[in-house]
Amino acid sequence: MFGREIAPPIIVGMYRVNVDVLGDNVLYRRYRNEVIEKEVITKGVLKLLPMYPIYYPRFITRHILCEFFRPIYVPPMDNLSLYFYLPIDVAVYSYSGSSFVIIDIVPLHKLYKYTLYGPPSRYGDMSGLIARYCKTDVFLEKPRETDLGFCLSYLEVRNKLDRFAILSKLLLDSSPLSIFYEYGSWRCCTQRVIVTISSSSTAIVEYEKEPIESGYRAIDEPEEVKSPLISFRSDMLWGY
Amino acid sequence: MSLEDVAKNISLLNSEVVYRVIVFVSIVVVGVVISIIIRRTFLKFLSARTSKAIASNVSRAIYYVLLFTVVVVALGITGIDVTGFALAGGFAGIVIGVALQPLLSNLFAGLYLMIEKTINVGEIVEVANNAGEVTEVSPIFTRIRTFDGIIISVANTQIISGVTKNFSKAVARRIEFKLSISYKDDAEKAYRIIKNVLDEHPYVLVNPAPDIFVSNLDQSGIEITVRVWTPPQVAYDTMKDLLWRMKKALSDAGIEIPFPQIDVWFRNTLNIE
To answer: What residues form the membrane-spanning segments (chain B) (predicted)?
Structure first.
């Protein structure tokens, strides 16, 4: 369960996570089909927390491109709000006081893919970027249950154009994006994400600071995705 | 002047010279120490704010200017007239300028490289048919560690004037494979198997989509070309991994990867005894 110290062996997706405390030291093991896939010796308190799906198989980018199963048609000068699932992995944090380190990422999905958003070459200072690719479902009503491996997100699409805008994908930046979790459960969510469609090919993605579910706690952000100090927004320059 | 006076004068002169030498050496030693401290301070200060190459070269330039200043000051204090340096320096400048023309052109090419950031330390480049990682961009040379571990130095003018491939600047890299299957095997089945391998590989980008097509009907088999895009950081690993996986998947499915062979037909039936 998110936030709790790992004590007895725990099943996380396809894996079994085992922690042996030997004196002050901790032996962490992750098994798949009784075969050890990851083994770490550390000292401190180990906790499971939801994590952006950008660290497995290795960290390449902090961007996530969510392609919707169903496109969203937003009327001119109008708004549309919906929920969607953001895929997540589970991170194993080792805490010592206020310091922490992620010692393992437990992958929860069978397939991990990347994609190029934008062109492969540069146009002056602008270029495409590599993003973690995921296909996700959108809902007009808040889903009752969220499976392990996904967190709930709320999307508001604002169309500033004088014609219909079709939103089929959403580029998220893990830095302004935040994941919040419910202590002692597998539930997690993000903040509200607002997409403003500003032209036929560009959109602005803004991130609020508060979680969409009250009482949820923010995860400790790893160094690669530390929250920005000022601007909680990112741009989609190559279509939406 | 008596012999005694001459000896006294020589003695006085010697002690004066020794004194001047000691002063000169002291000033130079102290000056060099201060120059080194200033160089290190600048190196630390600039490293935190700009690229390592610029920090290293600017601090080195400051160090040499300080050294020159220290020597001139030390000579001045010890009583040697340094005003002649100005005139001599003018002539020397012309002579040195002509003599060091290739060196200076490299120097300015190096400065241009640093400002333009055409190549930076840590990037994977190919210059003059030498591919590898850039380890240093100095004012005169750029040093590249080739993939087989050899350090090569390329003059900066060569980089400016020649063709430089910078693989690290690419947002995504395309890699290409050529596979052959025998004529008796099902090409569509091979296509499906290869596509499946590509779809399951995390580093094969979804977009631009992989390209698989029959590119040649060869003497010994059907040539299939596979083109995929991948993040540049993992291009080499992906290239190694994918070829192995495709070969394994095709072999597991019973698809034969042919080798060059010639069928020889005889007009008459051969009698083998």
So the answer is: 17-40, 61-80, 86-109
